[in-house]
Specification:
globular, DUF962-domain-containing protein, about 5% strand, two-stranded antiparallel ribbon
């Protein structure tokens, strides 16, 4: 993994360069958590490997923990977030926990697979709509895949959305100011690169 992968400022700037339109940001604030939740529901239906120990705990009718692929992904992701920004990750942990536990509980309900799949597809389509109609450019993930580059946008999207909510609440004002400056510079660089590619 490149050093940039552990640079919060670089990662935020890269994401911000693809998410500057207010409507697109609102769509992502709504859809990203639902994409994560539905992905956890879908993953909870996968058969576990024998190497994964059986760990189960109920925290009421709507919150359940199982050591499955969803839990492993959630824990790994939060550890990565913690390496990037310990303080903000602590504020994200309750959100991550409720998302995982509610998704795991829902996965045991009849029809959960079909409902989660529908939510997942709808939210992805909504985000493509936000990028195409309001942002006016392809998502960072798609842009990078088509360009043959690796992207952490999919992994970091929940953290980026969490930052957007914190910004709306009036927190981390200096981080927000730095981010806007970095985004302006990065957008200018991306536009220049595209012009150079067109000339070639």
């Amino acid at each position: 993994m490149s050093p940039a992968a552990f640079s919060l400022r670089q990662q935020l700037a890269f994401y911000g360069a693809y998410h500057s339109n207010p409507t697109n940001i609102r769509i992502h604030i709504t859809c990203v958590p639902l994409i994560v939740w539905s992905a956890y529901v879908l993953a909870a239906h996968l058969p576990k490997l024998d190497a994964i120990p059986s760990v189960h705990a109920d925290f009421g009718p709507y919150l359940t923990f199982d050591l499955n692929y969803s839990a492993i992904w959630a824990i790994t992701t939060e550890l990565y977030y913690f390496a990037l920004t310990p303080g903000v990750t602590l504020t994200h942990l309750p959100v991550a926990a409720v998302t995982l536990l509610s998704a795991t509980a829902f996965a045991s309900k009849p029809g959960s697979l079909e409902i989660a799949a529908a939510v997942h597809v709808f939210c992805w389509l909504a985000q493509f709509y936000g990028h195409g109609v309001h942002e006016g450019r392809a998502p960072a993930l798609l842009d990078n895949l088509l360009g043959g580059k690796s992207s952490l946008s999919l992994v970091l999207a929940p953290l980026f959305v969490h930052y957007e909510v914190l910004f709306i609440l009036g927190l981390f004002k200096q981080t927000k100011k730095n981010l806007h400056n970095d985004v302006r510079k990065l957008v200018t660089e991306l536009k220049l690169k595209k012009k150079e590619i067109k000339k070639e």
